[in-house]
Amino acid sequence: MAEAAEQSRPYSPLENQVMTALSGVVDPELGLDLVNLGLIYDVAVDAAGLCTVTMTLTTMGCPLTDYLHDDITKTVKGVAGINDCKINLTFEPPWTIEMMSRYAKVALGLHG
Q1: 23: Cβ–Cβ under 8 A, 6 or more apart, which residues?
Q2: CATH code linked to domain 13-107
Q3: What are the residue ranges of helices labelled H in 7-101?
Q4: How far apart are CA 89 and CA 38, in angstroms?
Q5: In tens digits, what is the pLDDT along the chain, a chain of 112 residues?
Q6: Is the peptide bond preceding residue 93 cis, with omega within 30 degrees of 0?
Q7: Which residues lie across from 32 on neighbouring strands?
Q8: Neighbours of 20 (CB within 10 A)
């Protein structure tokens, strides 16, 4: 998973499944998944199957906000045991390239 995850508790097996599913959601501009980009800060699933995804974007006013929202929602709701998805968009802490996984940095040529 991305190095920048802000979770303060271990993920449940279902939350791990959601994170795995989210690794399939690709930022079309960068060509890398949101998890490796460090844009997913947390996932939490309650007893009713509501999954809350706390995330950020690389920049405020990102033109892909609606596209990513729809893709995340569809992906999360596709995980067995998830009934609904809520996305908390935050800019705290602000995203930086240090939040990307090593894989993402290498893929984008930022390994130096």
Answers
A1: 1, 33, 34, 35, 36
A2: 3.30.300.130
A3: 13-22, 65-77
A4: 13
A5: 444 445 568 999 999 999 999 999 999 999 999 999 999 999 999 999 999 999 999 888 888 889 999 999 999 999 999 999 999 999 999 999 999 999 999 999 987 5
A6: yes
A7: 27
A8: 12
The pTM of this model reads 0.88
Altogether, the residues listed in the chain come to a count of: 112
The owner of tokens 């990307």 is 100
* Residue closest to 19 by CA, chosen among 3, 37, 42: 42
**Exposed / middle / buried, residue 96 (Cβ in 10 Å: 0-12, 13-18, 19+):** exposed
Mode of pairing for the β-strands spanning 84-89 and 50-55:
parallel
Say how many C-beta atoms besides its own lie within 10 A of residue 97's C-beta: 12
**Which amino acid, 102?**
R
65: Cβ contacts below 8 Å, ≥ 6 apart? 57, 89
**pLDDT at residue 3, rounded to an integer:** 40
